[in-house]
Amino acid sequence: xxxxxxxxxxxxxxxxAAALAAACLPAAxxxxxxxxxxxxxxxxxxxxxxxxxxxxxxxxxxxxxxxxFEEAAFSRLLPDGMVRIEQTGLYRVLxxxxxxxxxxxxxxxxxxxxxxxxxxxxxxxxxxDERLAAYDAPGSDSPVTARYSGSWxxxxxxxxxxxxxxxxxxxxxxxxxVSEVAQAALTSAIPDRIxxxxxxxxxxxxxxxxxxxxxxxLHNTRAKGAIAxxxxxxxxxxxxxxxxxxxxxxxWNVLGTPLxxxxxxxxxxxxxxxxxxANDYIQASTTTTFLQLEKFG
Length: 297
Hints:
By secondary structure, the chain is mainly β. Helices cover 11% and strands 41% of the residues. Strands 1, 4, 7, 16, 17 and 20 form a 6-stranded antiparallel β-sheet that branches. Strands 3, 5, 6, 8, 9 and 18 form a 6-stranded antiparallel β-sheet that branches. Strands 10-15-12 form a 3-stranded antiparallel β-sheet, with no helix packed on it. Strand 5 (75-77) and strand 6 form a beta hairpin. Helix 2 packs antiparallel against helix 3. The protein is rod-shaped and about 90 Å long. The relative contact order is 0.29. Mean pLDDT is 83; it is low at 1-37.
């Protein structure tokens, strides 16, 4: 790649740096510097409709198809969703993708890149195209979580016997299903309250027996007599497992390149893939899904 001329490197000075330099120069030169424009023209391209990634683990071009704005004629949107550079110069390229939340489905690793094709390469997207920037966004794998907390005064637990109670766990809008994971603790079933031997003999276990319903069991595994457990606070935590995956929320992922010299005739595009889920999709939005070019010189 051709080295950047010194003039272009100087163009990266911010307005504050230029003002500082102007203060150290004769008045005539200072006037010329402060009159210099530092506006950075931008062109932005976006999606007119939601875009589905049809297959998992396949890199797919995200086809930008509308011009959000063009402040200068240094780039052009092409019918295939790529953007062609019309003027050689120093650019920063930005993209943002608005990934859709997938209700009841865990979203695996999402990946997307800004890629460049050289002017003499007239073909479609290839894995060998230069990656100007790349981002890996791990998906959400958090379980649905539900809780219960309340008082319980269990009856005496007979030798080698058990007692139980059923409680309803609360979730904001989702459900814990039968056979998923639950655990429980009773604040009074501790050595300080019932003695060391009784505490060692007493097992507290929990099981999801119906939707959002957990059975908590106290089992006297080895004490010769009944174990008296005083009233205490029963805390229950229930969570979904791989049978019911956590939901991913909407995600806005922004990616940008460093300042890069782009040459007339080159093409840029955004490529994305999902490592494990088919039909993951990107929402159409002129403000949260776009490819933007900023020309610095």
